[in-house]
Amino acid sequence: MSNANVSAGAPPPAGTPLLSVRGLETRFFDDGMALKAVDGLSFDVARGETLCIVGESGCGKSVSALSVMRLLPPPPASRVDGTILLEGQDIRALSEREMRRVRGNSISMIFQEPMTSLNPVVTVGYQIAEAVRQHEGKSWAEGFERAVEMLRLVRIPEPERRVKEYPHQLSGGMRQRVMIAMALACRPRVLLADEPTTALDVTIQAQILELMRELQEETGTAIVLITHDLGVVAEMAHRVVVMYAGRKVEEASVGDLFERPCHPYTVGLMGSIPELGSSLVEGKGPRRLAEIPGIVPSLRAMPAGCRFAPRCPLATDRCRTEMPPLEEHRPRHWSACWHWERAQEAIHVHA
Amino acid sequence: MWGYLIRRILAVIPVMTVVAVVVFLILHLNPDDPAAIIAGDQATAADIENIRRQLGLDRPVYIQFFEWVARLVRGDLGSSIFLERPVLHLILERVEPTLALAISTTIFSVVLALPLGVLAAWKAGSWIDQAIMAVAVLAFSFPVFLIGYGLVQGLALEWDLLPVQGFVSITEDPSRFLAHLVLPTIALGLVYTALLARMTRSTMLEILNEDYIRTARAKGLANPRVLLIHALKNAAVPIVTTIGVGIALLIGGVVVTESVFAIPGVGRLTIDAVLHRDYPVIQGVILVVSGFYVLINLLIDLTYTVFDPRIRY
Fold first, then answer.
1. What is the 3-state secondary structure (H, E, C) of A271-327?
2. Which CATH class is domain B91-307?
């Protein structure tokens, strides 16, 4: 993963965070049972910065983003606790009406499935224009002008024609570009992107990531990129939050994380992606892809102690009884592991 | 689009041919002898034989069928045995009340059911939803004639708010025309409203779980826009289909409603024809109603393209 440092570009500009999440807890209520999908998540994103939240499916990363957007089913079905500051304003304290002015305006979200996330019976131009109309009080004509402008910005050819088309007339990659155009139409400060490239072909993935990076340079939007793909993390992130079973288990700059991971789960994730060229150097034939044994624990049956312990090759009795706190083991590099110094050994145990 | 339209119109031919064969066979598969009915109770065997020859009923069935179809194509539906008048005239005279009732019922039901269905889906699980659905089940469970007599008893007889029964042509007096339509429309429309409201609710509930609804909310759109533009437009195809099916069901209800409210429409004509075994009238009514139904279906298929751009013919 030596390319990580190169492609992630310049370090993020310093400054107060645009989005600051503290102690986020999201619970769902099912049959009178509270299921904690997100447990004490904190993170910051600054202007022009990309924060990647990485983890397996079901670790709570999408739920975190939906909690921030306040798009989860309303209480009593779910409950969100903690502080979410957007440009210093606590958006959890806003009324639903005030929140609507924030959504799609100061903070936007892109979803995983471009095929199903656009309304099939409404033209793409309309779908962009209505957001502009809603937030900036523009006329339909101005909204459509902005739509054309946004489609051009996301490099869709012939935007004047495309603006009148329906989603089914566009390819998957085009639709995700439309989603991005829609999300950026009102020039949000923060963009939450939930697996924006997962449903796309590899070549299209690269184009979409490239586009997001370029647009970030132009607009300075802070991006929270949710992914399960460490390749995407290496490509895009400035900082990385690794989540496991609803909790943050590690946070570091992208360089630190790939160089010296301090959590066996992070090491395990890295072990499960193929490394180009390594076998040639070592001359021992292809390296076997390591996998993390076992499955993510169910929300209904969380292990006591460290949640990763049942799957962790380094786990000791302490891990199984005492939950490790998230500690800053190196400057700006946190992890929640009793054996963080030995974390890198985890890969050798698997391989 | 035009190609599709022409294909669809051509497809009406085999459908109507099947209808024509079935309608024709009604006369020939029933135990009554039409000649005997026309001749009446006092007729001798010779009289009946005479009439049979006059009507061509003694000739081979297939020749009768082709002659009958040839007359149909020219717009001749035959003559009523009892009223001794052309069937087409009888139907045209009675078509206004029936059409007026069908249209007013459809409008009434759609206008009432769509907002209720959308509201119930939006507030799913709340007391509003439960109240709407409880009333819908109730409305669906009462037979048309019971609702009809109840309304007549209350609104017309007790409080004297509306005319009890009968019909006034729109050309004669538009306001009395409307007043006479109110009770039959409610009586006939409640069942249909309940059906449509339930259908709207379940379709909307499904659609409100779609990803694009979440996208719409993520844009910061207000509820009315999310519900009425993003959700309802997607629900339009199943809803329009239900409206179409409802119009077909309505034709059955019209017969009962016209009897309850003494409306001189096609329904009454049909009942009278059945009671008198007036076969040409029965055949004519079935043909006209079938044609109407085929037409409604065609119109509904065409409206799909308006609501869903993915449907192209």
1. HCCCCCCHHHHHCCCCCCCCCCCCCCCCCCCCCCCCCCHHHCCCCCHHHHHCCCCCE
2. mainly alpha
